[in-house]
Amino acid sequence: AARNKGETEFLQAVGEVLESLEPVVEQNPDIIKTGVIDRIVEPERFIQFRVSWVDDAGNVRVNRGFRVQFNSAIGPYKGGLRLHPSVTGSVIKFLGFEQTFKNSLTGLPMGGGKGGSDFDPKGKSDAEVMRFCQSFMTELCKHIGADTDVPAGDIGVGAREIGYMYGQYKRLRNEFTGVLTGKGLTFGGSLGRTQATGYGLLYLTEEMLRCMKNDSVAGKTVVISGSGNVAIYATEKAQQLGAKVVALSDSDGYIHDPDGIKLDIVKDIKEVRRARIKEYVQSVPTATYTEGCTGIWSIPCDVALPCATQNELDGASADKLIQGGVTAVAEGANMPCTPEAVEKLQAAGILFAPAKAANAGGVAVSGLEMSQNSLRYGWTFEEVDSKLHDIMLGIFHAAYDASEKYGSAGNLVMGANIAGFLKVAEAMIAQGVAY
Ligand code: NDP
């Protein structure tokens, strides 16, 4: 903790994983001697850099860029880039650390990384976003590569930003390789990547309900926070599976539509017009809009899927969900539930799927995009979606089986941490201490 003073998010994420590993250490005390636990919490490399660019009014603007290359024991570093004013070194380190275990759980050969900048894309013109992305990539390109480190999108980084960054990388390095994932379909992107995290979240939630409660998503009332990429495609798959999604949000407030969210209207607001979620009530007057985000958890529901951002669901929100009759919570965002919320939900017997298992669908399809780029071939949407489905079921069972083996059957937080850790740890031990 002393070495990472003040890095609240990072210490929170490490604390949670180390706590889960206690039964592993009890069963295999020799693991301590390998130093693997001390090594795994220290990033292999942390890069911080200046990103200067010129806005439309001709002013020079300066942001801070980051890339953490956390762990490459099982494959090239892999993880998204986040553009948001809340981005700090601690946020990037927590995300890179989590990514290491998540990528391991997918069963694909990917190490852990993460990056981004405190640049705020909100209110910026296309040209400003492009100049920022080009400046960002001018430095980042020195550190990444198709066999070294393969970034992707995250909050604030979608197809547009990946396109600008890919173009700049290609220009600087004079090579057409799969160095980024989430690319446009005309230049090496994978079908199904846009939908992957949201769809994958529902595949895992469905399997969790089936195996642990002999139940399914069909007929359930679902509350989803956020209205970005993950939230939109979680809504789409939940509806396809027969659930009714009644709420969505953004960082200003939330909408409640008891008749079920009309997703075409949400897509038009968020994906086409890049506007605010409150505009939904202009098209659907029977729906309501409420300022502030946390109130969304007081809407009674069977399934809650936090898909916005870290620490958005705290202990008080967990109490509201429990009072509202929730039976399952699965994290679409990264670390959206505070430790207190997780504790309360688990104590109340609510099924709980942690982010590193539940939202791994995005990086899994990114891994499949890398495979397709290496093959110089593209699979159909159905092929990708069916592989995604298999991977999500595999993740659920890996986490469940580990929870059983280490004495906490059904505790998927513990199971996901242990299953993710064991594979990376074994590879690190095999590759020697200095690796
Ligand atoms: P987007 O930028 O597409 O969307 C984020 C959404 O969350 C926006 O609607 C944003 O609203 C909203 N939001 C932000 N802060 C809050 C808040 N405090 N309360 C309510 N809503 C809020 O991002 P993604 O959908 O891609 O990512 C969402 C989460 O999922 C992140 O934690 C990300 O790391 C994680 N994730 C994403 C993956 C992917 O494939 N996209 C893969 C795995 C994880 P506003 O417009 O107001 O900012």
UniProtKB/TrEMBL annotation:
NAD(+) binds at T197, N229. Belongs to the Glu/Leu/Phe/Val dehydrogenases family. One of its GO terms (cellular component) is cytosol. Keywords: NAD, Nucleotide-binding, Oxidoreductase. GO terms for biological process: glutamate biosynthetic process. The keyword Cell cycle does not apply. NCBIfam families: PRK09414.1. Gene3D superfamilies: Glutamate Dehydrogenase, chain A, domain 3, Leucine Dehydrogenase, chain A, domain 1, NAD(P)-binding Rossmann-like Domain. This is Glutamate dehydrogenase. InterPro entries: Aminoacid_DH-like_N_sf (IPR046346), Glu/Leu/Phe/Val/Trp_DH (IPR006095), Glu/Leu/Phe/Val/Trp_DH_C (IPR006096), Glu/Leu/Phe/Val/Trp_DH_dimer (IPR006097), Glu/Leu/Phe/Val_DH_AS (IPR033524), Glu_DH (IPR014362), Glu_Leu_Phe_Val_DH (IPR050724), NAD(P)-bd_dom_sf (IPR036291). It comes from the Bacteria. One of its GO terms (molecular function) is nucleotide binding. Residues 190-432 form the Glutamate/phenylalanine/leucine/valine/L-tryptophan dehydrogenase C-terminal domain. SMART domains: ELFV_dehydrog (SM00839). Substrate binds at K78, Q99, K102, G153, S366. The record marks D154 as: Important for catalysis. PROSITE patterns: GLFV_DEHYDROGENASE. Homohexamer. The active site is at K114.
